[in-house]
Write a structure and sequence with these properties.
The chain has 163 residues and is mainly beta. The chain contains one helix and ten strands, in the order αββββββββββ.
């Protein structure tokens, strides 16, 4: 399902604070075990984090998925024990659009960062606090799923400065 044009009144205030960061953070990693052969994707995750949510029902998440393999893959869904739903969004010119999937090119990467592609954790079952971790399961079109422990950082965390 693709939802476009989410209202600014619904998301602006929560996102303004939740998206107060950039790309990169302490690395988390995982591999789908497919190896780096030329005909397969070889996926790993790094720089994952969630700014501590400012809203009781919504949070943002950021990470980088690297593909060292010779075949492309696609991120098709994200789930988490902390949220009723996790949606994937692109941002272009300040407009946020929900996406069904994101391509991960061979020998490339997919970056989710503040102001760009990002994850939205909706219908939070609990409000994650700084210092905790959130378990996130990434599902792909071809590769096996990856499970990531996403650390919760301060609401104003900036990965480029570490604060």
């Amino acid at each position: 399902m693709r939802r476009a044009g989410l209202t600014a009144a619904t998301l602006t205030s929560a996102l303004a604070l939740a998206l107060a960061g950039c790309a990169g953070a302490a690395p988390d990693s995982g591999s789908d075990g497919s190896g780096s052969g030329s005909g397969k994707a070889d996926l790993s995750v790094s720089s994952s984090y969630m700014p501590q949510p400012v809203s009781a029902d919504m949070a943002a998440g950021f990470l980088t998925i690297a593909n060292k393999g010779g075949a492309k893959d696609e991120l098709t869904s994200v789930t988490s024990d902390v949220a009723g739903e996790v949606t994937m969004h692109s941002t272009n010119g300040g407009a946020m659009t929900e996406e069904n999937s994101f391509a991960i090119p061979a020998h490339g990467r997919l970056v989710f960062r503040s102001g760009g592609n990002h994850l939205m954790f909706e219908m939070l079952k609990r409000k994650p606090r700084q210092g905790q971790s959130v378990t996130v399961k990434l599902t792909f079109a071809k590769s096996g799923p990856l499970t990531v422990e996403m650390p919760v950082k301060s609401a104003t965390y900036n990965p480029s400065t570490g604060h």
